[in-house]
């Protein structure tokens, strides 16, 4: 049993004017919290919260408080199977509401799906090669970003299906793309051409070129303030780039093989890297010369993820296991999730953090108690490797994507 009040949910103010960045606020530490007092405390430190929006803020806090009292969902049933593409899937992504999802494919398209009905709403055509990366601009979700093996990225309107802009500059396949969470007009892409680039989505102009890696760049992730970019590369390093100076802040060295991922915790003061050298490492942003801790597996570490509070780290490995580590204190192993019969390629925590979801080449996804390591449910039914899985924003729905060319929605 997980006490949700041990966690720190965040209020994210969504401005209709996209020029205003999202604001994250820590709140609701206990049941007896006086929401009027809390609203005033928030306003005293956040100038965007004025007297005019007090009622809206209090209403949001009430909804969050009610949400925290609800029990954590632990059992899911198969709600819908989406027969997505004729050719293999590459990626899948929920929108914030969980009512829409997008898929990328070797058929050179991205498709927008209605999760409730299972209907295909739009086919985004225009790429001339595999669509490998797909992303929404959270939290608004009124734009879609695709990255392709045709060396371009494209910005789309998900309602009309129209391409708004094509982003040119890479000289090899694009394998990752995401929106800046603070400045949604900016997007980052990474490529097999050994570079990461930042573009202005409305003008198509290249804003930053980060070209110091000596091998393929396989992930690029902004911090929550959008002023730093974290890249991971097959050159065995990760790099933190400063968006303001257009130069790299520091190169993270310490792995002995290609990296498979690099991620921020929510506070963005810690970085986790995973590698084919059978380790994952934790790095403190203030001193990146040496890792703060090292997690080990018996085979390649294929994925790594923090929980929402940054207190736990999950690793997934080709040794068929996932592990959860306590990031606070002395960095201790919490539990081992053993049960998959093939490599674990994806790990992700539920939004409250009490559950861990894993995807495996054994054609299943599994849900685990992240504290005990007990498998609470096996999501079976795919006829091929499950390579992607994620919770929706609320944590009450799951999407799994498989090499059988289907996505399954679980509720």
Automatic annotation (TrEMBL):
Protein name as catalogued: Wd-repeat protein
Gene3D superfamilies listed in its UniProt record: YVTN repeat-like/Quinoprotein amine dehydrogenase
Record key words, sorted: Repeat, WD repeat
UniProt keyword Repeat present: yes
SMART domains to which the protein is assigned, alphabetical: WD40 (SM00320)
A Pfam family reported for this protein in Swiss-Prot or TrEMBL: WD40
Transmembrane region(s): none
WD repeats: 82-123, 124-166, 210-251, 252-293, 294-335, 337-378, 379-411
Superkingdom assignment: Eukaryota
This protein's record includes keyword Repeat: yes
């Amino acid at each position: 049993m997980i006490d949700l009040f041990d966690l720190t949910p965040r209020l994210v103010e969504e401005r209709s004017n996209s020029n205003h960045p999202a604001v994250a606020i820590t709140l609701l530490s206990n049941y007896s919290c006086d929401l009027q007092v809390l609203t005033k405390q928030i306003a005293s430190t956040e100038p965007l919260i004025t007297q005019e929006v007090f009622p809206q803020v209090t209403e949001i806090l009430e909804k969050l408080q009610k949400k925290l009292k609800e029990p954590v969902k632990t059992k899911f049933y198969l709600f819908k199977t989406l027969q997505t593409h004729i050719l293999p899937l590459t990626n899948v992504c929920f929108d914030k509401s969980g009512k829409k999802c997008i898929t990328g494919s070797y058929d050179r398209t991205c498709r927008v799906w209605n999760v409730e009905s299972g209907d295909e709403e739009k086919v985004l055509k225009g790429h001339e090669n595999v669509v490998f990366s797909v992303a929404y601009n959270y939290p608004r979700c009124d734009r879609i970003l695709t990255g392709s093996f045709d060396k371009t990225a494209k910005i789309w309107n998900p309602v009309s299906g129209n391409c708004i802009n094509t982003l040119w500059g890479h000289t090899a396949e694009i394998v990752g793309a995401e929106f800046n969470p603070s400045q949604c007009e900016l997007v980052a892409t990474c490529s097999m051409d050994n570079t990461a680039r930042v573009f202005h989505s409305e003008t198509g102009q290249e804003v930053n070129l980060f070209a110091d890696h000596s091998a393929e760049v396989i992930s690029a992730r902004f911090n929550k303030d959008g002023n730093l970019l974290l890249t991971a590369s097959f050159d065995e390093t990760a790099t933190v780039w400063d968006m303001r100076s257009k130069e790299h802040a520091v190169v993270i060295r310490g792995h002995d093989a290609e990296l498979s991922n690099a991620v921020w915790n929510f506070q963005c003061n810690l970085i986790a890297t995973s590698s084919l050298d059978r380790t994952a490492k934790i790095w403190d942003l203030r001193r990146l010369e040496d890792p703060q801790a090292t997690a080990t597996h018996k085979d390649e570490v294929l994925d790594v993820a923090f929980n929402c509070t940054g207190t736990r780290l999950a690793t997934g490995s080709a040794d068929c296991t996932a592990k959860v580590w306590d990031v606070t204190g002395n960095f201790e192993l919490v539990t081992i999730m053993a049960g998959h019969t093939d490599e674990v390629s994806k790990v992700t925590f539920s939004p409250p953090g009490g559950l861990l979801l894993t995807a495996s080449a054994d054609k299943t996804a599994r849900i685990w108690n992240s504290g005990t390591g007990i498998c609470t449910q096996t999501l079976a039914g795919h006829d091929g490797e499950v390579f992607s899985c994620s919770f929706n924003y609320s944590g009450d729905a799951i999407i799994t994507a498989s090499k059988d060319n289907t996505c399954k929605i679980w509720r």
